[in-house]
């Protein structure tokens, strides 16, 4: 456009020169001088005669004009050669970019990325904003968007130094794995005894009788649902630390955790029931941990008790009692009446003396978390068994990905204590967050060191998770790439226009339902918010939910799980995901219940785990569509066929006899021939002799015609049935 303006300007100057010549001729001021023919350079529309004086003036103008044109042309050339700044045209890419990061780098929204991937080998249903994209797919998206890319400079990441806290060199010492210690500092410690057995065989009642307490009466449903650690003082002055584990099938992980920190296992078997499922599992836990057994045959006071049968049944599981030539002590007891309990205690003390249980009470503390919970006033609390060192107030501990500066220590009765030596159960207060049950407790030198350890463990877990996620993503991408190649092979014979048309039709519903909106179109899903009183309870519930295998009926999505009572945040979360709140041994105050009612949120609170699972199964069943069940009301056989004329149409009629139930014209009917259903529908008429009737009973003859012009055959069966909608029940079996 600038060039055109310059050409116009040049023409105007030439025209001005011509006007000056005409003026000179008219005034005759210029004469005798030769005239020269001038050719216009820009647009040769003709030639002009120019006087020499005027030509000199015009030369100065032309010189200025040519200089201006030269500058303008040079400027245009510079502009053409000048590169566009790398703002929108070029995108910096790097490895492991997520969908969201790529969208931000391109200056687009996430939906633009999904649209670019629509006809690719990636399954859009598996892509989320935080999903990592392969480098080839990133380049493909940029090419489709008309953008250039450049690779970011890879920063060499220095290998992070391992700052984890670990034990010293470990050797076997009794049934705990502890660092070697000077024999001079080793002191005797109480044995840790775990009580195992089937549910309702009297484990907690036995412990109550030894402690002279009533723990069993306070347990929901009369069954233990937490792992408990107690220190029992024997009349002889000996101390024994008991771990009472749940016997219910849902708490297998708790029983395994109990055997991992124990010295002796007391296997409780009811004399009238014998060996049961959890009895066998408990024997296996003890064998895996390499822990010796003492057999306590309980409920021997009952008339139907048969201790000898119990001993013989245990032979099949490699538990051989002393009277059969084995090394397992067997004691017949009655926990309820307190019979032979001292004999059992003496057998335990005698076995502990043989094991020579000693520990190092000096140095840094080491232990194991038995259970963890949250208390409104005290915050996160853990029950732990100390295995080495002496725990005191002010110690800095690390467990899992959290740490604590010990503020208070409590015994099993809630009484504050100053210290806890090896083998003693203690409740620890001062944790930043609740550690998981089974985590190893290690003492460190300072709070700064504890933070270093937690930071390293979080980093290591994150790296491990990223590696696993990357492997899963690569496997899925490979799978989808193979599917994509198969689809392309099927379309290979088509032209590119035909292929685009076929793909458009196939993906039309995906195109118009973007990922943000697709959540509304998802299949039936039950979202859960799970709250428990202690970490072990949550572990058991989540373990049961992991066994859910009926995704084709109703999807199960655990949105959140945690410890503590139901809060307003739980209600808001359930509202956002249209979910249900499951609470185990927790509470919801009146204001929370009112808020839940107002928002239509279901809160299901239970203190017994199998009741909670039953309620969950009912909730899953309620979300299934009802099924239609056919109930047969009557059956009739076709004895003869004929037809009647109605207007110009001939209608087939069957002469039938009812041999079971009755035929009701208001119900539905089906016609069966050679065991195949060839028609379903309603009757157009039902007559007895010449009268229209509603019902034909057993033994009566009738004539009937269908709402469809269908020929009958002698021997056909007419079935009268009623359709009822019946609520489906989930086929999920949690195993108990």
TrEMBL record:
<dbReference type="Pfam" id="PF00009">
    <property type="entry name" value="GTP_EFTU"/>
</dbReference>
<feature type="domain" description="Tr-type G">
    <location>
        <begin position="188"/>
        <end position="356"/>
    </location>
</feature>
<dbReference type="InterPro" id="IPR009000">
    <property type="entry name" value="Transl_B-barrel_sf"/>
</dbReference>
<dbReference type="Pfam" id="PF11987">
    <property type="entry name" value="IF-2"/>
</dbReference>
<comment type="function">
    <text>One of the essential components for the initiation of protein synthesis. Protects formylmethionyl-tRNA from spontaneous hydrolysis and promotes its binding to the 30S ribosomal subunits. Also involved in the hydrolysis of GTP during the formation of the 70S ribosomal complex.</text>
</comment>
<dbReference type="InterPro" id="IPR023115">
    <property type="entry name" value="TIF_IF2_dom3"/>
</dbReference>
<keyword id="KW-0175">Coiled coil</keyword>
<dbReference type="GO" id="GO:0005739">
    <property type="term" value="C:mitochondrion"/>
</dbReference>
<dbReference type="GO" id="GO:0005525">
    <property type="term" value="F:GTP binding"/>
</dbReference>
<keyword id="KW-0342">GTP-binding</keyword>
<dbReference type="GO" id="GO:0003924">
    <property type="term" value="F:GTPase activity"/>
</dbReference>
<dbReference type="InterPro" id="IPR000178">
    <property type="entry name" value="TF_IF2_bacterial-like"/>
</dbReference>
<protein>
    <recommendedName>
        <fullName>Translation initiation factor IF-2, mitochondrial</fullName>
    </recommendedName>
</protein>
<dbReference type="InterPro" id="IPR015760">
    <property type="entry name" value="TIF_IF2"/>
</dbReference>
<dbReference type="Pfam" id="PF22042">
    <property type="entry name" value="EF-G_D2"/>
</dbReference>
<dbReference type="InterPro" id="IPR036925">
    <property type="entry name" value="TIF_IF2_dom3_sf"/>
</dbReference>
<keyword id="KW-0547">Nucleotide-binding</keyword>
<keyword id="KW-0648">Protein biosynthesis</keyword>
<comment type="similarity">
    <text>Belongs to the TRAFAC class translation factor GTPase superfamily. Classic translation factor GTPase family. IF-2 subfamily.</text>
</comment>
<keyword id="KW-0496">Mitochondrion</keyword>
<keyword id="KW-0396">Initiation factor</keyword>
<dbReference type="InterPro" id="IPR044145">
    <property type="entry name" value="IF2_II"/>
</dbReference>
<dbReference type="GO" id="GO:0003743">
    <property type="term" value="F:translation initiation factor activity"/>
</dbReference>
<feature type="coiled-coil region">
    <location>
        <begin position="459"/>
        <end position="490"/>
    </location>
</feature>
<dbReference type="InterPro" id="IPR027417">
    <property type="entry name" value="P-loop_NTPase"/>
</dbReference>
<keyword id="KW-0809">Transit peptide</keyword>
<dbReference type="InterPro" id="IPR005225">
    <property type="entry name" value="Small_GTP-bd"/>
</dbReference>
<dbReference type="InterPro" id="IPR053905">
    <property type="entry name" value="EF-G-like_DII"/>
</dbReference>
<dbReference type="InterPro" id="IPR000795">
    <property type="entry name" value="T_Tr_GTP-bd_dom"/>
</dbReference>
């Amino acid at each position: 456009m600038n060039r055109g303006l310059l050409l116009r300007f040049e023409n105007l100057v030439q025209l001005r020169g011509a006007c000056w010549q005409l003026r000179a001729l008219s005034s005759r001021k210029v004469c005798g001088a030769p005239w020269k023919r001038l050719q216009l350079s820009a647009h040769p529309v003709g030639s002009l005669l120019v006087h020499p004086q005027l030509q000199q003036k015009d030369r100065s103008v032309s010189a200025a004009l040519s200089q201006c044109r030269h500058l303008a042309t040079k400027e245009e050339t510079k502009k053409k050669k000048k590169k566009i700044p790398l703002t929108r045209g070029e995108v910096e890419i790097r490895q492991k970019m997520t969908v969201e990061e790529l969208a931000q780098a391109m200056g687009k929204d996430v939906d633009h990325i999904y649209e670019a991937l629509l006809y690719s080998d990636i399954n859009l249903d598996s892509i989320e904003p935080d999903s990592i994209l392969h480098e080839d797919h990133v380049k493909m998206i940029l090419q489709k968007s008309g953008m250039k890319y450049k690779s970011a400079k890879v920063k060499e990441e220095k290998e992070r130094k391992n700052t984890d806290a670990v034990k010293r060199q470990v050797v076997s010492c009794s049934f705990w794995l502890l660092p070697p210690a000077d024999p001079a500092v080793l002191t005797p410690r109480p044995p840790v005894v775990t009580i195992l057995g089937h549910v309702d065989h009297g484990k907690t009642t036995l412990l109550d009788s030894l402690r002279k307490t009533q723990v069993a009466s306070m347990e929901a449903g009369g069954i233990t649902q937490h792992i408990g650690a107690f220190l029992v003082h024997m009349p002889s002055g000996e101390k024994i630390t008991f771990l009472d584990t749940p016997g219910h099938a849902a708490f297998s992980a708790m029983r395994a955790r109990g055997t991992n920190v124990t010295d002796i296992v007391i296997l409780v078997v009811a004399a009238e029931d014998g060996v049961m499922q959890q009895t066998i599992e408990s024997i296996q836990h003890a064998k895996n941990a390499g822990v010796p057994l003492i057999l306590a045959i309980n409920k021997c006071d009952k008339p139907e008790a048969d201790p000898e049968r119990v001993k013989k049944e245990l032979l099949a599981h490699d538990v051989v009692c002393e009277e059969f030539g084995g090394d397992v002590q067997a004691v017949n007891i009655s926990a309820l009446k307190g019979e032979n309990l001292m004999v059992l205690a003496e057998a335990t003390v005698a076995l502990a003396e043989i094991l020579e249980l000693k520990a190092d009470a000096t140095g840094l503390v080491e232990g194991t978390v038995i259970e963890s919970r949250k208390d409104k006033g005290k915050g996160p609390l853990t029950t732990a068994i100390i295995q080495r060192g002496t725990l005191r107030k002010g110690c800095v501990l690390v467990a899992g990905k959290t740490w604590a500066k010990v503020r208070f220590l409590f015994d099993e009765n809630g009484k504050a204590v100053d210290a806890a030596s090896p083998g003693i159960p203690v409740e620890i207060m001062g944790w930043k967050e609740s550690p998981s049950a089974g985590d190893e407790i290690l003492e460190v030198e300072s709070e700064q060191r504890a933070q270093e350890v937690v930071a390293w463990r979080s980093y290591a877990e994150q790296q491990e998770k990223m590696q696993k996620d990357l492997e899963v993503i690569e496997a899925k991408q490979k799978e989808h790439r193979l599917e994509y190649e198969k689809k392309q092979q099927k379309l290979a014979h088509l032209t590119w226009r035909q292929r685009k048309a076929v793909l458009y039709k196939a993906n039309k519903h995906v195109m118009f339902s973007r990922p943000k909106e697709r959540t509304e179109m998802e299949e039936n899903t039950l979202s859960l918010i799970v709250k428990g009183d202690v970490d072990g309870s949550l572990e058991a519930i989540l373990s049961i939910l992991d066994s859910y295998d009926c995704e084709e009926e109703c999807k199960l999505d655990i949105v959140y799980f945690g410890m503590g009572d139901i809060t307003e945040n739980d209600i808001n979360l359930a509202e956002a995901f249209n979910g249900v709140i499951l609470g185990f041994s927790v509470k919801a105050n009146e204001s929370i219940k009112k808020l839940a009612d107002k928002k239509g949120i279901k809160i299901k609170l239970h203190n017994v785990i199998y009741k909670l699972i039953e309620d969950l199964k009912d909730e899953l069943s309620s979300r299934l569509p009802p099924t239609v069940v056919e109930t047969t009301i009557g059956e009739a056989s076709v004895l003869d066929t004929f037809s009647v004329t109605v207007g110009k149409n001939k209608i087939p009629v069957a002469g039938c006899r009812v041999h079971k139930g009755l035929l009701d014209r208001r119900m539905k009917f089906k016609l069966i021939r050679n065991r195949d259903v060839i028609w379903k529908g309603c009757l157009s008429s039902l007559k007895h002799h010449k009268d229209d009737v509603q019902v034909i009973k057993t033994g009566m003859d009738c004539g009937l015609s269908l709402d469809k012009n269908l020929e009958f055959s002698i021997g056909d069966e007419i079935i009268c049935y009623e359709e009822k909608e019946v609520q489906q029940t989930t086929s999920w079996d949690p195993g108990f």
